[in-house]
Each structure stands twice: as C-alpha cells, then as structure tokens.
Amino acid sequence: MRKILIVGAGQAGLQLALSLRAEGYEVTLMSARTPEEIRTGWPTSTQAMFDLALSTERAYGLNHWEEQTPAIHGLRPQLSVEKGQLALAFNAPLDRPAQSTDQRIKMARWLEDAEERGVEVIYNAATTQDLDAITQIGRYDLTVVAAGKGDLVAMFDRDPERSPYTEPQRGLAVSYVHGLGPDPEWPEPHVGFHALPGLGELFVIPGLTLSGPCDILFWEVVPGGPLDRWAGHSGRMAPAQHLEITLDLIREHLPWVAARAGNVQLTDAKSTLHGRYTPTVRKPVAHLPGGGKVLGLADVVIANDPITGQGSNTAAKAAHHYLQAIVARGDQPFDEQWMTETFEAFWTAHGMAVTGWTNAMLQPLPPHVQQVLGAATTSEQIARRFAYGFVDPNDLLNWFVDPEKAAAYVAEVSGS
Fold first, then answer.
1. Which DSSP helix (H) or strand (E) runs through 27?
2. What kind and span of H or E run contains 3?
3. Angstrom distance (rounded) from CA 401 to CA 223
4. Strand-pair category, 72-82 with 191-196
5. Adjacent-strand bridge partners of 302
6. Which of 67, 103, 202, 387 has the fewest CB atoms lying closer than 10 Å?
7. Do residues 346 and 353 touch, judged by C-beta distance below 8 A?
8. Where are the beta strands (DSSP E) in 127-250?
C-alpha cells in the first residue's frame, strides 16, 4: 500500500486525504490545529462553492451539510457609477445551487472523519526542517504540501510569467452576521455582487455558520482608497469595530443594502476576518535542503484574489485532480517530472482560466464586459451563462473574456 503524507488541513488537504484513504492509500495528515481549535477559532474564508466543486465532495460522502446550508440560487451583480446610485443590476440564476459552509464547521468535522476513516492525523505545525527530515527518512512515497499560509509557502518559487502582480490588489474584510433582511429584488438566497468602480466591491453571501444560517458581508477594497478603512490594523481588530466599519461603508455607498441591515449583528464572538495578500502562482515543486522534493497543492501554488469566489472551488478541483493523478500512477514513482506534469495538467484544465479571469476582474471593466453585463439585464440566457462561468470558468474563455467572441455571442442571443 502506497504511503502519502499531506501537510495542511484545509479544503484541499483534507479532501485529498479523505478521498485517497477511500481509494485504499495509507495516508498521514499534518494539521496545525485540532478540531476543537478550529471550531472555536476565527473564520478563514467565505467559501462559496459551486456545483462542479461540490460534486467532488459528494463523490466521497463529505457533503454533511447539504440540507442545513442555504441553497444559493444565483448571483445578482449590481454596478454603481455614482455614490449611492444604482446604474445596473440583473439576476443571474444557477442551474444547480451553490453553498457556503463555514470552514470552522467543515474542517473540524472532516478532521474527525479522517481519524474515524483511518487517516493518521498528526497535530503539529510542520516546518521546512520537519519536511526535510521526513523526506530524507523516505517513509512516504509522496509528500503534498497543502498549507496555503505560513512559512511552508516560501519553499515554492514564484512563477513570474503567471504572476502579474507584485503587491495586494484588494484589502479584504469579512463579517459573518445574522439579521440581514432578504433582497426585495430577489428574495431567494443568492450572492449579491455590488461593484463600486475604482473603490472596491461588496459581496453578500448566504451561508451556514456555527450558530446556523447567516449572511457573510465581504468587502474587497482598493488599497489606499477611501474604502480602505481596515488599513493600519495589522493585528486582529475588535469584531464590533470591524462590523461598524463594514456597515458605515454600506450606509455611505449602498443604501439599498443598508435598508436591509438595520438589525444586523455578528454571529459569534469570533466572526470577522481582515487582511490582504498578493495574488501569486508558484512553481509546483519545492526542493528541500536534503534533496527531498514535495508537491504543492491549491493555495500553495495558485493563490488568486477572492474577487471571483473561486478559492475553495479551485482547491476542491485541485484535490480531485491530484487524486486521479495519484491513482493513475499506480506503482510508478512520484518523481519530479510526474509532479510537474500533474500540476501543469491541472493548470491547463482549470488554473489558467480561473487565474486569468480573476486577475482581469481586479482591473477596471473593459468596454466589452460592460456591454455583456448591460445585455444580461434584458437577457436571461446571457445572465445564466454569466453565472455558469462561476461553476466552470473555462466557459468564460469561449465568450466572456474575448471582445470579439463576446460581441458575437451577444449579437447571436439578441438576434434570436
């Protein structure tokens, strides 16, 4: 039986560990936190996941919250060109619902699942020195690093050709709340996407948290701009202060959201998150001082800005892709060539499209995208295809990102 070590217990690391174990592999997982520490900690993401990514969880019985998590029926993009004035809005329904389950719930349960299903779980924050020693011993056939934050990421070299940014493009601020009223324009649960050109974006995401169904208020703000009021708070801001800034910005710029937020309160004492990072693609193989090699997974090697809501989706798809590659390898060695080819195949199948789309969305919307969004206000077909891009970003390459293809598609739909 082949032995796999996975370092990191997030979406990708845990999903890969559990699915490999189900396929008969001997799996060891290193987690920096216990299930109880995760449950009683702070949120780590907003994690809206769409159907293709969710299907990779369902395949291995990991979808424990299918009935409890609110079904997200689509997206409602809204664009403001002047302060407090709505210029464009439309409903973009999904064919199958999305979901957002607080990772404090999800990762804690998956860790317990891992122990129950025969994964050896080691509760220890691994260092580069630890991995160097482990790979020299040669106990494992393959070591995968899925810890997207911390010192281990620095082992993987930045890929300058795939990383156009050298500094953060948004400041990020998340609040999990109860008490937000439904959107009168679309009362069913959906992701509200409120774009303020040149300033930032607010996302309103229905989800499930420790205290039940909730909404996630997620600001993405242009660094140094007038909305960047979390700047200078390098440590953990008091949650009440964090929420007050969130609501102040909503009242100033999005009165139609403010009208729903009169009774908003935080879901728990640890329900906020803020920070910023530079979107970066890294080389997939890290070389350790003792000669060992380890393979990077998900955020370790593809860390996109969350503006397109693809982080957890990419992690789930990457875990599934690596699973299939490991199984297909049989008894052959997991050498550096295989590691590189495995990542490159994932990059071609998914990473390239989602990274290109996400990086483009961090810039001012080009005229052809503005025209597509305008056409979606009167065409449900266009609106639905826009929503499907969040399920499978590869489809966006066929029309949305290319001015000529976008114009041709809009003309075809308008003509029909």
1. strand 26-31
2. strand 3-7
3. 25
4. parallel
5. 281
6. 67
7. no
8. 142-145, 171-178, 191-196, 200-209, 212-221
Residue 374 has pLDDT above 70, yes or no: yes
Contact 279, 303 (CB under 8 A): yes
Tokens of 245: 């800034």
CB proximity list for 306: less than 8 A, separation 6 or greater: 45, 46, 172, 218, 220
Q: Is 344 helix (H, G, I), strand (E, B) or coil?
A: helix
Question: If you average pLDDT over every residue of the chain, what do you get?
Answer: 96
Q: Could you tell me if 142 and 326 are in contact, meaning their C-beta atoms sit under 8 angstroms apart?
A: yes
| CB-neighbour burial class of residue 138 (10 A; exposed 0-12, middle 13-18, buried 19+) | exposed
Both tokens of 56, joined, read 């990779």
Residue 132, classed as helix, strand or coil, is helix
DSSP code for 224: T
Q: What are phi and psi of 36, to 5 degrees?
A: -65, -40
Distance CA(93)–CA(72), nearest Å, equals: 9
**pLDDT 10s digits, 340-360:** 999 999 999 999 999 999 999
Structure tokens at 237: 């801001």
**How far, in Å, CA of 205 to CA of 91, rounded?**
14
- What's the whole-model pTM score? 0.97
Quote the distance between the C-alpha of residue 170 and its chain's center: 15
CA distance 220 to 230: 11
CA angle 238, 241, 245 (to 5 degrees): 140
